[in-house]
Amino acid sequence: MLEISDNLTRKDLRIKIACELYKRDEISFGKACEIASLNIEEMKEILYRRGIERHVNVSLEEMENMAENAGLIIVFGI
User: Fold this and answer.
1) 3-state secondary structure of 56
2) Is 15 inside a domain boundary?
């Protein structure tokens, strides 16, 4: 359960809610930024300071495509 203090500003409350929902994997990183009204770098810093790990929801195929577009070669051994 999310505990809310009486002395939180609206922005602090939006950040707290965004972080909690992101931590629970209920929203994406982009949605957390939107809810908190923060840019990507600000949100990454807040998550880091709160000890919340970033989730990377990228499939192997997407990762290979990104690497290919960046001119990298990925070799996966089995």
Assistant:
1) coil
2) yes
Structural domain total, the chain: 1
The answer to whether 38 and 46 have CB atoms below 8 angstroms apart is yes
Does residue 63 form part of some domain? yes
Q: Name the residue range of residue 24's domain.
A: 10-69
CA distances from 77 to 23, 35, 74 (A): 32, 41, 10
> What phi and psi, each to the nearest 5 degrees, are found at residue 21?
-65, -40
Inside any domain, residue 78: no
User: Over the stretch 1-36, which tens digit does the pLDDT of each residue have?
Assistant: 565 556 679 999 999 999 999 999 999 999 999 999
* Burial track 14-45 (b if 16+ CB lie within 10 A, e otherwise): bbbbbbbbbbeeebebeebbebbebeeeebee
Encoding tokens for residue 21?
Answer: 């929902």
> Does 52 map to a domain?
yes
